[in-house]
Amino acid sequence: MTDTTASLHRMARRRQAIHGWLLLSPALIMLGTFAFYPSLATLWTSLWSRGTRRRPSEFVGLENYERLFSDPTFREVAMNNLLYAGVTIPVSIILALTMALWANAKIPARAFVRTAYFTPTVLPMIAAANIWLFFYTPGFGVLDQIGGLFGAPSVNWLGQPETALWAVCIVTIWKESGFFMIFYLAALQTIPEDLREAARIEGASRWTYLRRVVLPLLMPTTIFVLVNALINSVKLIDHLFILTKGGPSDASKLILYYIWESAFAFFDAPSAAAMTVLVLIVLGLGAALQFRVLDRRTHYR
Fold first, then answer.
1. CATH of residue 104
2. Could you give the CA distance from residue 197 to residue 245 in angstroms, rounded to a whole number?
3. Which one of 75, 77, 172, 283 counts the least CB within 10 Å of its CB?
4. pTM of the entire structure?
5. What is d(CA 63, CA 61) in angstroms, rounded to the nearest whole number?
6. What stretches in the chain show pLDDT beneath 50?
């Protein structure tokens, strides 16, 4: 009986393992096909030189990475992306939280407010960029028309290095804040109303209730939004095609646009692959750091 029982237990565990792997197999196939294999292939490509018909590619190891770090254009693009991320991520999150708090409050026309906030999110990237191109056009754009009413001179927002990147940042903030607001709005609606009543009975102000109750309970959502905002900060390319094409003088060029330019305009696939690997490493480290630092302050219940 003991051997029979042990054999039945082994068979049950084997069936559970097979069942588990069958459930995981669709996700593993998708991740392997569209994530793991492309990442490994990109890493392998970055270790070879650029090949031509007369001169085939050769294994060069880390030479492409060394060349990148000595490339002034890459350093400028990296700094542009750091500034872009440092501006768009916190501003978008703060605006999203503010809009969610307002849209969740008991105000007149609340449905209209939510729709208005979310509308920029559903617009295609190209359409949104063309709308803002109409705003930024010197002499004829909405901004110059408004400024002209107060005697302000015409400004070429997208055509001068001092303002081009900031103009792109404004478009991104306008586009992403409504998207992040949806997650905060959904999280706010899961907070029990009893907590608000208890805080009111205890004499807590609105600011104290927000800081001590609401924000800690929103930390899981904040981590999710932070990771998505970090990913979005290095994948912008649609707006740049319409607004600036990375100019003027690379002042608004970001990393993904530079990767595309290296791979498909200059046909330098190894350099593009090296930059892609660096982006993946930075994103992975950034996400791990966010989870490690913020997870200690996160309340999941």
1. 1.10.3720.10
2. 53
3. 75
4. 0.87
5. 6
6. 1
